[in-house]
């Protein structure tokens, strides 16, 4: 065959990919030694195959490329004057290896993304579990407080705010006179300023006799802003004042936030 017939027959493509029998490989290499046109055609086919491999392969880290190039450089370079040493099957194998390694790195990336997603999901589940446990704890606490406040021995009173000091304030008192126990719901009190505390007073009206029952901050907190006071006497009224930190021996009347009677029921 002449040069054009060889090019048009497709035998060079088979030669480049290593798909020709050995006797035909020798015939092609003999023709290559005498034809620059055939040599250029072989180079064009090689370039096309490499470009195709690069187009379909995912990006490969520089470290992997360095390893592959170092390995390929160990293969004997193919000169145009000695085509009998050409090992196109080896080169084709390296191209396949490049694609395989690229695929492996792609799968590793996907696996890492999946692992990150699993870790995030587990963290979200842990936070959700903590929220559920906190909600269950609050619910149990609320039920416990309701059990206490609903006992028939308790009498409840609404204690209004002092119109001259805190007209919007209020408190609730639950008294068990037989057990001398009182529960003060201070939800309606504004937050005490820094350096100040609320102090609870048991009052006898005639003559006016205040007895300190202690500080809200020192009382046992049994629920959300609900405090328990033991050894609480049978008062005629209850007052709550805002006092300096540590409390006072007598109520500061100018800071009387709450005052209400607890008799008549």
TrEMBL record:
Keywords: Coiled coil, Membrane, Transmembrane, Transmembrane helix. The chain crosses the membrane at residues 88-108. Residues 95-252 form the Anti-sigma K factor RskA C-terminal domain. InterPro entries: Anti-sigma-K/W_factor, RskA_C. Residues 28-55, 111-152 form a coiled coil. This is Anti-sigma factor domain-containing protein. It comes from Jejudonia soesokkakensis. The lineage of its organism: Bacteria, Pseudomonadati, Bacteroidota, Flavobacteriia, Flavobacteriales.
């Amino acid at each position: 065959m002449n040069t054009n017939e060889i090019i048009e027959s497709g035998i060079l493509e088979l030669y480049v990919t290593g798909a020709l029998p050995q006797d035909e490989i020798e015939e092609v290499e003999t023709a290559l030694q005498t034809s620059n046109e055939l040599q250029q055609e072989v180079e064009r086919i090689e370039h096309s195959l490499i470009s195709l491999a690069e187009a379909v392969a995912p990006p490969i880290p520089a470290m992997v490329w360095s390893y592959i190039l170092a390995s390929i450089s160990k293969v004997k370079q193919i000169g145009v004057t000695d085509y009998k040493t050409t090992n196109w099957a080896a080169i084709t194998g390296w191209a396949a290896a490049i694609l395989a390694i690229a695929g492996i790195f792609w799968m590793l990336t996907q696996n890492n993304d999946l692992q990150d997603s699993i870790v995030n999901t587990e963290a979200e589940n842990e936070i959700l579990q903590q929220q559920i446990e906190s909600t269950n704890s609050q619910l149990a606490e609320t039920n416990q407080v309701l059990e206490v406040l609903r006992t028939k021995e308790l009498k409840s009173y609404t204690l209004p705010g002092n119109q001259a000091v805190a007209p919007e304030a209020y408190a609730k008192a639950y008294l068990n006179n037989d057990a001398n126990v009182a529960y003060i719901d201070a939800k309606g009190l504004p937050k005490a300023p820094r350096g100040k505390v609320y102090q609870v007073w048991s009052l006898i009206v005639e003559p006016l006799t205040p007895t300190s029952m202690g500080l809200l901050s020192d009382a046992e907190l049994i629920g959300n802003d609900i405090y328990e006071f033991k050894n609480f006497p049978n008062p005629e009224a209850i007052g709550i004042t805002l006092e300096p930190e540590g409390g006072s021996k007598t109520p500061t009347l100018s800071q009387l936030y709450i005052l209400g009677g607890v008799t008549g029921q």
